[in-house]
Design goal:
Elements (H helix, E strand, L loop, with lengths): L2 E4 L2 H12 L7 H23 L12 E6 L4 E6 L6 H7 L8 H6 L6 H10 L10 E9 L6 E6 L4 E7 L5 E8 L9 H12 L6 E5 L2 E4 L16 H11 L6 E9 L5 E8 L14 E6 L2 E4 L14 E6 L8 H6 L1 H24 L1 H15 L1 H5 L4 H7 L1 E4 L6 E2 H6 L8 E5 L3 H5 L5 H5 L4 E4 L4 H8 L1 E2 L2 E5 L29 H12 L5 E4 L8 E4 L7 H9 L10 E4 L4 H13 L3 H17 L7 H17 L1
Parallel strand pairs: 2-8, 12-14, 17-18, 17-20, 21-23
Antiparallel strand pairs: 1-6, 2-3, 3-7, 4-5, 4-7, 5-6, 8-9, 10-11, 11-14, 12-13, 15-16, 15-18, 19-20, 22-23
Helix pairs in contact: 2-6, 9-10, 9-12, 17-20, 20-21
The structure holds adenosine-5'-triphosphate (ATP).
The site of adenosine-5'-triphosphate has 15 residues, from helix 2.
Function: Molecular chaperone. Has ATPase activity.
InterPro entries: HATPase_C_sf (IPR036890), HATPase_dom (IPR003594), HSP90_C (IPR037196), Hsp90_fam (IPR001404), Hsp90_N (IPR020575), Ribosomal_Su5_D2-typ_SF (IPR020568)
Organism: Aliidongia dinghuensis
């Protein structure tokens, strides 16, 4: 009895986009099906290491392409691990990756841009519906006795029913659309396999008129000498191994020899995956042991901050029958991780030095991830600091810490930073004014991860990182722009400032930690800063947004003694002493500083009242 089921909403949406798009490169469907088939064979071969009875009788694994001109179908047949009834339903009816739903909702219909995005996301098995009106999957899982048939026209539902089949593996039959009949022709299939799947490590056969012909060279690409692998082949390998559609930004193919031996072919993608920051996301480096696939889920193989890497690592030294659990703890894996990390960072450093514009592209995609290494990996901290790039107040584009240090002003010892949600927001911060006036460069840090590595790292070479939004960012020691070779003398703070500061402190009492006169402002009258030792204000805001912060530390209100408003208030205090107008002004100054920080006012009604009475007094004068 065939049971009809609906696709998960996300799958229906994906199928709809795939079917209706004007995507030109339809032949990728074959690559997707062949790479799924090859993965299934890899898994069965691995399973057979511990349970030989579940392996292929002759120990040989293969993918067969079988066109049937009479039925107008093309079948892709593998003797891999197969799928149970439940697996057919789950794997071919749902998408388990989190974030998928939000991703698909953001897509429109039909546009080319969407197709590139979908490509990046990977249409996998569903790409079969680009060329077929109907798809039938018959599968028998290794170790089970009952096979099942999955069938669908890709329009909202599918059926699953028990079926007779005795060969373990999966047969996917595509009922080709009228205009896609070419995929039944041998020359067409040969061409596609040669271009897209030559590097697949197991034989891909074409079965026609009872004869079989091998279409690919069937040797694992990474085992070939580097100079015999063309860029085109490496790219195709990347597409298959990573199920990716973009081009690799960097390809790293090498053989490590010495204490441990392994070959690796790794890729840094050219495009940023949409789920890069999903905590459940795993890296995509596959582990092989002497050409046998072991796992794509060995978290210890590469550090989390290199989780954008794709590709394979093939070890000569690991025992083949090692369990996945022991694998995670294996010192050999730790050694490989160390080697891979060093190698990748070394290649990135070369790119950073030789191809700055290209490196900037990488940094925009993966910089925020790489920065996680600054607090996770003490050993590589120096290397990562040299690789880090930042937006800054001094230059368009990205700057390195080395650039920054080279431009430091006489008397400047610290590297100044500001953290904010965006470069624009950072540039609007009043705390930058004094630095700008003195020509002191400030790095604009806008990734959430910046809040975490900064306090951990604390220094680059002998230079401390200092936030401009903290008390203690002392500008007076730094020489400003010299006029006629003379260092401009700082004018003393106007008289009455100290008294005004004392009054503000008294009035605002518990609402602030302190009130101070500052030289960090030139245009604004006031700003808020975090006290030395307290949490950075941007971090406090981030944590508050995520409800991770209980009690927030109080801020310091800094006043600019040279601002006309502050001077006027100081004069008034000197002449008439304190009074309601000055008290209102004190609160208005604090609220103004809060607004500039983008914060909500604790008492907007009181603010409005004070502002109204202040305006009224002003108009009456
Ligand atoms: N020939 C096959 N044999 C066994 N299992 C298969 C086969 N084809 C697909 N599957 C299962 O179905 C799942 C879904 O396949 P699909 O191609 O849609 O996505 P994927 O390969 O996991 O990821 P991607 O989106 O990167 O292509 C696979 O992960 C695999 O478990």
């Amino acid at each position: 009895m065939a049971e009809t089921r609906s696709f998960q909403a996300e799958v229906s949406r994906l199928l709809d986009i795939v079917a209706h798009s004007l995507y030109s490169d339809k032949k990728v469907f074959l690559r997707e099906l062949i790479s799924n088939a090859s993965d299934a064979c890899d898994r069965r071969r691995y399973l057979a290491l511990t349970e030989p009875a579940l392996g292929a009788a002759d120990g040989k694994y293969r993918v067969v392409l079988k066109p049937d001109p009479a039925a107008k179908t093309l079948s892709v047949i593998d003797n891999g691990i197969g799928m149970s009834e439940i697996e057919l339903i789950e794997n071919l009816g749902t998408i388990a990756r989190s974030g998928t739903s939000a991703f698909l909702k953001g897509l429109g219909q039909d546009s080319k841009r969407d197709m590139t995005l979908i490509g990046q996301f990977g249409v996998g098995f569903y790409s079969a519906f680009m060329v077929a009106d109907k798809v039938e999957v018959v599968s028998l899982k290794a170790g089970e006795s009952q096979a099942h048939r999955w069938e669908s026209d890709g329009k909202g539902s599918f059926t699953v029913s028990p079926v007779d089949a005795s060969e373990v593996g999966t047969r996917i039959t595509l009922y080709l659309k009228e205009e896609e009949k070419d995929y039944m022709l041998a020359p067409r299939l040969k061409h596609v396999v040669k271009t897209y799947a030559d590097h697949i490590a197991l034989p891909i056969l074409l079965e026609e008129d009872g004869k079989e012909e091998t279409l690919n060279s069937a040797s694992a690409l990474w085992t070939r000498p580097k100079n015999e692998v063309t860029a085109e082949q490496a790219k195709e390998f990347y597409h298959t191994v990573a199920h990716a559609f973009d081009d690799p930004w960097l390809t790293l193919h090498y053989k490590a020899e010495g204490v441990i031996e392994y070959t690796s072919m790794l890729f840094v993608p050219g495009a940023k995956p949409f789920d890069l920051f999903d905590p459940a996301r795993k890296h995509s480096v596959r582990l092989y042991v002497r050409r046998v696939f072991v796992t794509d889920d060995c978290a210890e193989l590469v550090p989390a901050y290199l989780r954008f890497l794709k590709g394979v690592v093939d070890s000569e030294d690991l025992p083949l029958n090692i369990s996945r659990e022991t694998l995670q703890a294996s010192p050999l894996i730790a050694k490989i991780r160390q080697g891979v990390t060093k190698r990748v960072l070394g290649e990135l450093a070369k790119k950073a030095a030789d191809a700055q514009a290209d490196y900037a592209k990488f940094w925009d995609n993966f910089g925020a991830v790489l920065k996680e290494g600054l607090y996770e990996d003490f050993e590589q901290r120096e290397a990562l600091l040299s690789l880090a790039r930042f937006r800054s107040t001094a230059a368009e584009g990205l700057v390195s810490l080395e650039d920054y240090v080279g431009r430091m002003k006489p008397g400047q010892t610290a590297i100044y930073t500001i953290t904010a949600d965006s470069p624009e927001a950072a540039l609007r911060s009043p705390q930058l004014e004094g630095f700008r006036a003195k020509g002191v460069e400030v790095l604009l840090l806008t990734d959430p991860v910046d809040e975490f590595w900064l306090p951990m790292v604390a220094k680059y070479k002998e230079h401390e990182f200092r936030s401009v939004t903290r008390g203690g960012a002392d500008l007076s020691a730094i020489e400003g722009p010299a006029k006629d070779g003379q260092k401009p003398a700082e004018p003393p703070a106007p008289a009455g400032t100290a008294e005004l500061v004392a009054l503000l402190k008294l009035t605002l009492a518990d609402a602030v930690k302190d009130v101070r006169s500052t030289d960090r402002l030139t245009e604004s009258a006031v700003c808020l800063v975090a006290d030395e030792g307290d949490m950075d204000m941007h971090l406090a805001r981030l944590l508050k947004q995520h409800k991770q912060l209980g009690e927030e530390a109080k801020r310091v209100l800094e006043v600019n003694p040279r601002h006309p408003l502050i001077q006027r208030l100081a004069e008034r205090l000197g002449q008439f002493g304190t009074g309601p107008a000055l008290e209102d002004a004190a609160w208005l100054l604090l609220d103004q500083a809060r607004i500039v920080e983008g914060e909500a006012l604790p008492d907007p009604v009181a603010f409005a009242k004070r502002l109204a009475s202040c305006l009224e007094r002003g108009l009456a004068a």
